[in-house]
Every structure is written in C-alpha cells, then in structure tokens.
TrEMBL record:
Keyword Signal: yes
This protein's name: Amino acid ABC transporter substrate-binding protein
Record family assignment: Belongs to the bacterial solute-binding protein 3 family.
Organism from which the protein derives: Pseudoalteromonas phenolica
Highest taxon in the source lineage: Bacteria
Length: 262
C-alpha cells in the first residue's frame, strides 16, 4: 500500500515539475509571438493554463527553439483551418490528410495517431480483421464508422456495438469486461486509463493492429516558417524531448510500443 502511494506521489511530482517547466516557458524572454488555433481533444490538445497536450507541446517546443512563443486559441477544428487559410491566424494543429496550397503549408508529421483495437490479454482473442469483430461486443467513440471505412461500417451493424460520446469511459468499460473490444486512439485510451494514476498497469490489454495509423501535422500560413519548423522538428525527434512530453501525459509505457511519427 505504501509502495503504491509512493509511486503515485512520484508520478504526481514528475507531472508537476513538467507543468512548472511549461509555465516557465510562458514567461521566457521571447519576442516573437505566434497565434495557433486548435480544438480541444485530450491528450493531444488540452485547453489548460499550464499544459496543452502532446500535439501542442511538441509544436510549442519546436517553435521555442526557433525563438517563438505561442498563443493558443480553441475553436472547432474545421473553423481552425479556415482561420489559417484566411490569414487571420499563423498556424493550426493538428491537421490530417492535407497538402500544401496557397497560404497554407503543411509540416512534416509531429505525432502519429494510432487507432487501435484493444482487448483484455486474459481473453486471448486474436481477430485477423475488422470483420472478425462482428461476433463480439465492441465499444468505440461517437462517429467512428465515418473514420474507418466500409468494413468498419458493416461490422458496426452486425456486432453488439456501442458508441460513447464520452471517450473517458471506454478504457474502464474494457477493463471491467463490459465489452470484448474497444476501438480508440492509443494515446487517448491510455491517457484516460491512467488519468488518476500514471503507474497503473497496462499489460492487461492486448493490441490488435487492424487499423492503419494516421499522422498529424501543423499547418502554417507562412512557407518559410514551415520549412524552418521542419528542420528543427527533425532535430527535436532525435533527442529525448518527444518521449518526455508523452510520458508527462501517459506515464512510462515500457510494455507498449508507442510509435512517434518518423
């Protein structure tokens, strides 16, 4: 009992130190301010005074190396794109499946989103395809069939299938065996599963790699800044900064290969 309490206090202390580090960045002597528009979706993007999520922390860390501070503005993601394309804001994140166009320039990937099918390890389930889930109880996020193609849509009509508007309940529902499978981004799943305890064991879950990963990027209104960002991003990924950001939100993930964007 004492050991678990010590682990929780240590994890809490590490996260508070990380928050203090981010807070200090806000007051550093940086002269160039950029306006970044985004939409809230923990743990990738979070509307908080001290910490702002994996995607935004990566973006801010790279821009800081270039001498920029970042002011965050939260709106719907579709509106965020329009605000950058119109030149009202300097950049947006995350953005998916986008290509360069006039006054809208896409960075190299900052984070890899990994939509994942998960089950309990003790069940020893081994589906070979999304269609194989049709015989089971499946829980996922609201609107999931619109993201994962026709095979997923067909499965959703055949399985004992539930969409939850509240993604935070999905990991617990799987952990309690209320469902056979959960479908959710890997970072989101473990963020909510470990929200109150960064040391919580994760080896109870088994991963089924049935959905292709999706890379997230940053969109800039200025091409030169995008190019400078890409150059600095490559160096950032070669260091330990990315892993430290992920660990701050998810805890140490030795049992799981959480692949970052290459």
């Amino acid at each position: 009992m004492h050991s678990n309490s010590h682990k929780r206090n240590r994890a809490k202390g590490s996260f508070l130190k990380y928050c203090a580090f981010l807070f200090s960045l806000c007051f550093s002597d940086i002269t160039h301010g950029l306006n970044l528009v985004t939409s809230e979706g923990p743990p990738h993007t979070i509307n908080h005074q001290l910490y702002s999520g994996i995607d935004l922390d990566v973006t801010k860390a790279v821009l800081r190396q270039l001498g920029y501070s970042v002011n965050l503005h939260f709106v719907a993601l579709g509106r965020a794109e329009k605000l950058v394309r119109s030149g009202q804001y300097d950049l947006m994140a995350p953005i998916f499946f986008a290509k360069d166009s006039d006054n809208f320039y896409i960075s190299d990937p900052i984070v890899t989103y990994k939509p994942m099918v998960l089950s309990l390890s003790e069940r020893n389930l081994s589906p070979d395809s999304i269609s194989d889930l049709a015989k089971y109880a499946v829980i996922t996020f609201q609107g999931a069939p619109g993201y994962f193609g026709d095979e997923f849509k067909t499965m959703s009509k055949q399985a004992r299938y539930k969409e939850s508007a509240d993604m935070s309940v999905i990991p617990e529902m799987l952990a309690k065996s209320r469902y056979d499978f959960a479908v959710l981004d890997q970072y989101i799943f473990y963020y909510f599963y470990r929200l109150n305890d960064k040391q919580r064991a994760i080896d109870i879950f088994k991963h089924h790699y049935l959905i292709p990963p999706v890379t997230a990027s940053v969109a800039f209104k200025d091409k030169m800044l995008r190019d400078r960002f890409n150059f600095e991003l490559k160096k950032f990924k070669q260091g330990k900064g990315y892993a430290k950001i992920v660990e701050a939100y998810l805890g140490r993930m030795e049992q799981v290969a959480l692949t970052e964007a290459q």
